[in-house]
Amino acid sequence: MAAGQIAYTGQEIAPAVPLWLNKGDNAWQMTASTLVGIQSMPGLVILYASIVKKKWAVNSAFMALYAFAAVLICWVLLCYRMAFGDELLPFWGKGAPALSQGYLVGRAKVPERVATEPLYPMATLVYFQFTFAAITLILLAGSVLGRMDIRAWMAFVPLWLIFSYTVGAYSLWGGGFLYRWGAIDYSGGYVIHLSSGISGLTAAYWVGPRIKSDRDRFPPNNVLLMLAGAGLLWMGWSGFNGGAPYAANIDSSIAVLNTNVSAATSILVWTCLDVIFFGKPSVIGAVQGMITGLACITPGAGLVQSWAAIVMGMLAGSVPWVSMMIIHKKSSWLQKVDDALGVFHTHAVAGLMGGLVTGLLAEPNLCKLILSSNTRGAFYGGNGGVQFAKQIVAALFVIAWNVMSTTLILLVIRLFIPLRMPDNQLEIGDDAVHGEEAYALWGDGEQYDQRKHGWHASEMTSPSPYVNGARGVTINL
Fold this sequence. Notes:
- By secondary structure, this protein is mainly alpha-helical.
- It has helices at residues 23-51, 57-84, 101-104, 122-141, 150-172, 177-181, 189-207, 212-216, 223-242, 250-278, 283-297, 306-330, 332-336, 343-361, 364-370, 384-414, 423-428, 430-433, 450-453; strands spanning 6-8, 13-15, 87-89, 92-93, 466-467, 474-475.
- The strands form 3 sheets. A two-stranded antiparallel ribbon has the order 1-2. A two-stranded antiparallel sheet has the order 3-4.
- Strand 1 and strand 2 form a beta hairpin.
- One of its GO terms (cellular component) is plasma membrane.
- Residues 28-439 form the Ammonium transporter AmtB-like domain.
């Protein structure tokens, strides 16, 4: 529809391009939404499918696919307005649908503390925030891959979205008590990474571990495809942090640059530590370093200077490395909890550290670009020390709420559905759970049958000549 024409909203006739609409901001926000969506679909779908053992590729990919779809429907039916709507409680909004045209074509509204008002329709903001909710559930799934009953996962996704994610989002982003108090979470270090890592570890505890053979050896089935998924995750993060200011402005540009600087620094530090302590660089280690660098910069991407992004990248490449490679191996409790992909270390530790460092290094002038209040990190004096204390309190709230809510949700589900697959399914994997396998290859649990797998097998009827494994060796039955 061309500019100047009119669109029927179902309630009134309104201009298709109202005066308040900024086409550039709207285009960027929809682009950022798509980039964040691509992080999950297909980014994490591909990453999960290839980083796990071959027998779990389909199940792992499906858990991510299901979460993406289920979250979207729950989001527009109820959860968007629980996270960004009118207040019900100091930490929770009133749930209501975000589906009517009258609501979606109106100008987007955000809490008063945001310095820049969105100049685009509510429909854009609803979808943008959905992509964050979806990726949080998918990140959480990484802790319970390879053993959680798929029916339990299907029940868990909407319940956790309603009773856990919306609380953190409303409290820190949607106008809740932490938001009004002045705690900072620029783009999800606490709402997304800390909550997914803590809830993932909690879920891993209640679901139980993988079978011993999977815990002892769990190699990726396709390292190159794993890198492709990781690449989509990294590139999509420009929309993740670049869309947080709700506009295509200076702060958005700073956030995109800082995001990539932190990720690159973290990869280099993690890889160097692998070489120093293990004698060789690990591709999986590099991917983990990438993720920790991205998660760490997220709570302050548009609020810190680029030299600080390098500092955060160095911390992201070293502190989670120590927690995963040293502390985890020496902690008997952490050893008992089977966090399949180490989500606690790559997201909870990195996200928590990023939120605390933001409380130290948030630069006052950059803060003014997105926050209407006078905010600064402790490094810059003034009230910065108070800001750091606020970051600690906000982190403690997110941790406590996610441990409690995740535990209660899983205990309720356990009354009706087993949380863990039976051992006979765990031994087989995808074929037992879905009746499907990732690769059409012989040898994964089946015997080599010459009539099925030999050369030109489809053309043979017994007795007839066929080639036994090597070209040119013909045997008559």
